């Protein structure tokens, strides 16, 4: 694949993956996106847990695909966590993996609880 399309894919993954992360954290707050949010979060958790059986816990196929593109573009030394990658790209600071993973798990569990609550237990108006 030529470098033009690799750059297009890089920008696509950077944008799409970042928006998806924000959506996975906050999509449950908006009534029109609650069901989609729950499905999105379940796919994310499936990737982390079930695909993680073969690829390592926390495996994200979007991160894998994006990192393949970045390696083709000559990028090296990328952290395992896409969140750590984003933080480093945006600020220049690479946080410790354990800190990032802890924050990711806590926020994801909170978003999942919120999503389950609004989708199954909250009375509809």
UniProtKB/TrEMBL annotation:
Which named protein is this? DUF2784 domain-containing protein
Instruction: Supply the source organism for this entry.
Output: Paucihalobacter ruber
> Which regions span the lipid bilayer?
12-31, 38-57, 99-121
Alphabetically list the UniProt keywords.
Membrane, Transmembrane, Transmembrane helix
Pfam hit, one: DUF2784
Query: Domain of life of the organism in this record?
Result: Bacteria
């Amino acid at each position: 694949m030529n470098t033009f399309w690799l750059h297009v894919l890089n920008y696509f993954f950077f944008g799409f993956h970042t928006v998806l992360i924000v959506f996975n954290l906050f999509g449950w707050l908006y009534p029109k996106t609650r069901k989609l949010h729950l499905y999105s979060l379940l796919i994310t958790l499936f990737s982390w847990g079930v695909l993680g059986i073969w690829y390592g816990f926390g495996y994200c196929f979007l991160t894998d695909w994006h990192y393949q593109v970045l390696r083709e573009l000559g990028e090296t030394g990328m952290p395992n966590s896409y969140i750590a990658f984003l933080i480093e790209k945006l600020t220049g600071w690479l946080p410790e993996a354990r800190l990032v993973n802890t924050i990711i798990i806590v926020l994801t569990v909170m978003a999942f609880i919120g999503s389950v609550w609004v989708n199954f237990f909250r009375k509809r108006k």
